[in-house]
Design goal:
The protein has strands at residues 4-11, 26-27, 42-43, 46-47, 61-69, 74-85, 90-92, 105-111, 125-128, 137-144, 160-161, 164-171, 177-196, 213-227, 235-236, 242-243, 255-257, 274-283, 289-291, 310-315, 329-338, 344-347. The chain is mainly β and 363 residues long. The strands form 4 sheets. It has a 7-stranded antiparallel beta sheet, with no helix packed on it.
């Protein structure tokens, strides 16, 4: 009887803050011709984009709250103002605000609109990340001052991603096998939690005080990366990794998920967070089904499966990390090959991929 091993490799890279200060591979915007007054203004440049991520190329608006006064006694100065990209990549809003005399202003910005609660960024905002199709970004620029003698005084915002990002790729390098995958999900992922803006500038290097925090993560749910409804929807693995989020009924692409602790204490039971794969394995020459079979443990058999599939579970936590961090793209590479040890889970060499940087320059 042929047995199999199921190998998982994971990848993560801590990305520098999603910056709006300088960029490469960008198209410079024409400088807008503003009068020499003391208005608060915004401007931006553009860069390349990656599907799903918010970048300055597809960022068409962001919302701003601003406060004067002190941390203990803040005074609302700009109340959820929408700043929109217009012609020539100029950022405009209405009514225009002017720098207050002898006072500094703290700016809080975010995109898209609506995910920060109506009380504003000085209190925690409850957010629901399900179904994982929306990227959200935020920025803080405290203690800003204008000058009546300086034309085009502008706010420099440095946006960062608030969520983590996850991708699942699968392949098989054994030419003697045909592996057909029907469903791929991530299970027990917390979808709701409270986000709080940092108090320090997000333009600085990443530190404890300038990164937003998530607390009270709750409401576990399942994120679908691939789901087959008919034989034509089955994915046949090859030596080339298949991005499972790009096919079937998984809503498409990578998932944006709430940063959270990942647990795997047993075999994917209880509150464990894991990847679940429903698949069947065949002999490539004869077409005979090799797995699941009569000797497959009950926990690896999917009762009532349309395609008679077995079930594999892979932990989301690894020896490299036990929690998802914001602004990090985690790529899980699953390899299904023949082996002497059925169902053993091994960790291969990690691959690395970067979460896209959002870079915009205010001049």
């Amino acid at each position: 009887m042929r047995h199999f091993y199921f190998q998982i490799a994971s990848a993560m890279v801590a990305v520098s803050g999603i910056a709006l200060t300088s960029c490469t591979d960008k198209e410079e915007a024409d400088a807008p011709d503003y009068p020499a007054d003391n208005a608060i203004r915004f401007a931006a440049t553009t860069e390349f984009t990656r599907a799903g991520d918010i970048t300055t190329n597809n960022l068409t608006s962001f919302n701003v709250y601003a406060y004067t006064g002190t941390t203990e006694s803040p005074n609302l100065f700009m109340d959820n103002v929408t700043v929109s990209k217009g012609s020539g990549n100029a950022w405009t809003y209405s009514p225009v605000e002017y720098w207050p005399a002898n006072e500094s202003v703290d700016f809080y910005a975010f995109s898209p609109a609506g995910w920060v609660n109506s009380k504003g960024p000085l209190s925690a905002s409850e957010y629901d990340a399900y179904p994982g199709t929306q990227d959200i970004v935020y920025a803080v620029a405290p203690d800003q001052r204008g000058s009546s003698g300086m034309a085009n005084a502008q706010v420099i915002l440095n946006f960062r991603h608030a969520l983590s990002k996850a991708t699942i790729k699968m392949r098989s390098s054994d030419a003697n096998l045909t592996v057909k995958v029907s469903n791929v999900v991530m299970a027990n992922i917390m979808t709701k939690g409270n986000f709080r803006f940092p108090s320090e500038s997000t333009s600085d290097a990443i530190a404890t005080g300038n990164v937003g925090t998530w607390t009270d993560q709750n409401t576990p749910n399942t994120y679908v990366f691939h789901m087959s409804q008919a034989p034509d929807d089955l994915i046949i693995l090859s030596t080339t990794p298949t991005d499972m989020g790009d096919t079937g009924l998984g809503l498409g692409g990578a998932k944006f998920m709430m940063p959270q602790t990942l647990t795997y204490r047993s075999n994917g039971s209880g509150n464990d967070t894991y990847i679940a794969v429903m698949c069947s394995i065949y002999d490539a020459k004869s077409g005979a089904k090799l797995w699941p079979n009569a000797n497959t443990p009950a926990e690896n058999v999917v009762e009532g499966s349309t395609f008679g599939d077995g079930l594999l579970k892979f932990p989301l936590s690894t020896s490299k990390f036990s929690a998802w961090q914001p602004g990090v793209h985690y790529i899980y590479n699953l390899v299904i090959n023949a082996n002497d040890e059925m169902g053993a889970i091994e960790f291969g060499n990690p691959t690395v991929d970067s979460f896209i940087e959002v870079i915009s320059n205010y001049e």
